[in-house]
Design a protein that fits this description.
183 residues, alpha+beta, Maltose phosphorylase, domain 3, nine-stranded mixed sheet, two-stranded antiparallel ribbon, 11 strands, 16% helix
Length: 183
């Protein structure tokens, strides 16, 4: 998942996440998994359980899926050592209508929640005290984005930086923010 994100293929990672056919995360969940299996074919309807000598059903090898979710669906990444600076740039998965992700950093809880409804995107961001975050909000232009109902230019604690590759880039300090993007 992390390699797919690194090479710009979050679309494939999202497909792997949602797919319910073998091999995929959804296949395991559909068949009762509540943890990460060591092998994609740890259990299949055709073969049943695989060799017990190498068939852990609580294995970390594929566990980086959660890190991928935090860094990509939630968009939470460290921008400086120990999360003194944070980068928030969520990937909006077209198959999801909402995603809520939190990470308990050494500086406190970092949280994002995005929802898509009726063409409108809402991005809620919580940034710990004594930190700053650069937030990339998917939008066509600055005027499409508000924070708590106010234009970015008059929103408290928000500094508009620029438009970049389909995102309004803002800097915020510690606090909770609610960005809305009009369709």
């Amino acid at each position: 998942m992390l390699v797919l994100a690194k090479i710009g293929r979050n679309d494939v990672a999202c497909r792997l996440l949602h797919n319910e056919t073998f091999p995929s995360w959804g296949f395991s969940i559909k068949h009762g998994a509540t943890s990460i299996w060591e092998r994609w074919d740890g259990w299949t309807p055709e073969k049943g359980f695989q060799d017990a000598g190498m068939n852990s059903f609580a294995h970390y090898s594929f566990g980086a899926v959660y890190q991928w979710m935090v860094e990509n669906l939630g968009g939470i990444r460290s921008g400086a050592p120990a999360y003194k600076e944070i980068v928030i740039a969520p990937t909006i998965d077209p198959k999801l209508t909402t995603a809520t992700v939190g990470y308990n950093s050494i500086r406190g809880l970092i949280k994002t929640r995005w929802t898509r409804e009726g063409g409108k995107l809402t991005l809620e961001v919580t940034v710990p005290a004594n930190t700053t975050a650069t937030v990339r909000i998917p939008a066509a232009k600055e005027a499409d984005v508000t924070e708590s109902g106010k234009p970015l230019s008059s929103a408290e604690g928000v500094k508009f930086e620029k438009m970049d590759a389909g995102a309004a880039v803002v800097t915020v300090s510690g606090g909770t923010y609610r960005f809305e993007v009009s369709p």
